[in-house]
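Reproducibility note. Readers wishing to regenerate the assembly model reported in the main text can use the exact inputs given here. Chain order matters: entities are listed in the order in which they were concatenated for prediction.
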Amino acid sequence: MSTADRDTTPFRPYAPGTQPPNDAPSYRSTGKRHPGAALVALPHTVTERQGPRFDPRRFPPLLDLSTACGGKALGERIIVSGRVTDEDGRAVARTMIEIWQANASGRYDHPGDQHDAPLDPAFHGAGRVFTDDEGWYQFTTIKPGSYPWRNHHNAWRPNHIHYSYFGPGFATRLITQMYFPGDPLLELDPIFLSIPDRTARERLIARFDLETTAPEWALGYRFDVVLRGRGATPMEG
Amino acid sequence: MAAATASQTIGPYWHLLEDKSWADLTRFGAVGERIVVEGRMRDGDDAPVTDACVEIWQTSPEAEDFPGFGRCATDAEGWFRFTTLKPGPVGGNGNALQAPHLALTIFARGIMIGLRSRIYFAGEALNATDPLLCAIEDAERRASLIAEATVPGVWRRDIRLQGGVAGAPETVFLDL
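Running the prediction on these inputs yields the following structure tokens for the assembly.
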């Protein structure tokens, strides 16, 4: 942990409509898991303005999910890259990103996933990557399959990759999902649709990127993420 | 400029990320007053929440080899358990001093955007003047943020995602 980069400015509130509510009735699991009382507003203190730092020497990157146990994973190999910035367009440098996903058949290498689709011994589905000084990251994986879930009759999740971001402060922590362009399941998915603002929703859809597509090797997708910026609409303190 | 990217649920399969050693914040050799912080998480039906990801963060103490950050999965009965160092007082806004606390985030299937809370420690004199604790007028609600020592060195704070029929109060969650 270094003390040099500890900016003490609070992070600004989320823009209206850009975040899903925790009470989202069409996503059934929210029913008994959302707070009934109003959240208590907490002006950011040092606890919220600072956040954990991860040193790649202790948290080694895992940049290629497309091979495991000496084998090549089945499915369509893809390269995902993008840039992490804050709301003012500034790079979020050297921040840790965690990634997890289903295999090409739509099955997670997880004991809780009992979907009748094959596991792939050459695919585990977890990775870790750090942004560079300009906020860029890149990793290689295979395109995850869609899979059924029991939210409602004939419910299927669109293809997606799960992401975890830390950013500069405890308040910038973000868990989200990246979707794929042209997926017909998106307009039926209560989790995707829970985000009220259409523009905010559609920013979770990666775009095909010929520039990072590697000839004779893998398709490229671009997924940029924005973490909360500091202080344009200052809160108390 | 673009607004911050939307949150989505962590879902039921986040354990692909899990490294159980992350629940021990002393694993890199940090030295200090070692404590266990544990609790049981329940939903609005009083059912244990068995697939949650609990994360803690503390800026105090500033000890060598102390990451200040930990992650723990709830188990089949809803328990989470961290080993960490007891935090000290932390400067607040203006002239305020904050009582020793851990910051907490809960992610789980059915939670669209991480639920934020704090864990304070019973018996701390500063609890009486802590700005957040003082802002919560209802004593029962305020108590939902305070861990009690069950045996020396072991602190327990249960989490209730939603007030329910069984009577236990809903945990105070924070708007950061």
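We highlight two features of this model. Chain B touches chain A through 69 residues (CB under 8 Å). The longest strand of chain B covers residues 34-42.
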